């Protein structure tokens, strides 16, 4: 009887967890959603104006680089009277 209880406990604990394919599918969906949150796209390869944020399954998450205006240095000269 004890052996039966141990066996049933083992079977229920193993069968309750998600299977490996389901877990992988869920992780891929989460990565794609995170890629969309940073305004990226999962595609086979990134263009030159994009960078790889991380990988969605096999394809990279390509995010457009932000354009930063060049900062003009203001040089002033202090004159003594």
Automatic annotation (TrEMBL):
Keywords: Antibiotic, Antimicrobial, Defensin, Disulfide bond, Secreted, Signal. It is found in: Secreted. One of its GO terms (biological process) is defense response to bacterium. Residues 34-62 form the Beta-defensin domain. GO terms for cellular component: extracellular region. It comes from the Eukaryota. Residues 1-16 form the signal peptide. PROSITE patterns: PROKAR_LIPOPROTEIN. InterPro entries: Beta_defensin_dom. Its main location: secreted. Belongs to the beta-defensin family. Has antibacterial activity. This is Beta-defensin. The lineage of its organism: Eukaryota, Metazoa, Chordata, Craniata, Vertebrata. The gene is DEFB113.
